[in-house]
Amino acid sequence: MMLIAAIALSAFMTACGGNNRDDMMENMSEEDGMGDMMNEGDGNAMQSAMSPIMTSYLEIKDALVSDNQEKASNAAKSMMEMSEMEDMQSSLKGIADSQDLKEQRKFFSELSGQMYNMAQSGDMSETMYWNHCPMAMGGDGANWLSMSEKISNPYMGQKMPGCGSVQETLNQ
Q1: What string of H, E and C letters represents the secondary structure of 22-36?
Q2: Residue ranges covered by each domain of the chain
Q3: pLDDT digits (tens, 9 = 90+) for 19-71
Q4: pTM greater than 0.90
Q5: CA–CA gap between residue 136 and residue 138 (Å, rounded)
Q6: Distance between CA atoms of 117 and 123, rounded to whole angstroms?
Q7: d(CA 132, CA 166)
Q8: Considering only CA atoms, which of 162, 169, 145, 146 is closest in space to residue 16?
Q9: How far apart are alpha carbons 114 and 76 in whole angstroms?
Q10: Which residues are 132's β-sheet partners?
């Protein structure tokens, strides 16, 4: 029985980019008490230098990292006012209207793909990181954009905020 538990724990840790228990605990404690600050580094300085759409996207991401459905909904409503892309509006409406974090994360996955396409097309000048969590969406995996190489996972929330890895660096 112990052998099975050890194998399962090893597989679990490997799926999360090799984060060990200490790394995950450090990630959790660094994010606790951050309040309204962005989890992306130096907060306001970075926020003022980026586009309003990216700022709102990161607010949604940070709210999901913090398991805060209400903040995610409010940030999505704010982003809806800025974006005219129809497919993005659908994803944002799903986040804004949902009272369920799991459902919001599903729509956030769609939104992340749309934001990634914008970043690849040169519509954004910020250096961003395209991250992946293999455990998100029931094991199907999901991606998101970040302004920092440090993983803050919007799909696993406070259960496993450090789960995932950087897949690509954009706009260097």
Answers
A1: HHHHHHHHHHCCCCC
A2: 50-170
A3: 433 343 344 333 333 333 334 443 333 344 468 898 999 999 999 999 999 99
A4: no
A5: 6
A6: 9
A7: 6
A8: 162
A9: 14
A10: 143, 165
- Average pLDDT on 120-130 reads 82
The C-alpha angle with vertex 95 and arms to 72 and 37, in degrees rounded to 5, equals 15
Q: How many CA atoms lie within 13 A of 37 on its CB side?
A: 14
Give the pLDDT band of residue 123 (cuts 50, 70, 90): low
Query: Could you tell me the maximum CA-CA distance found in the chain, to the nearest angstrom?
Result: 55
**If we measure between CA atoms, which residue out of 10, 11, 17 comes closest to residue 162?**
17
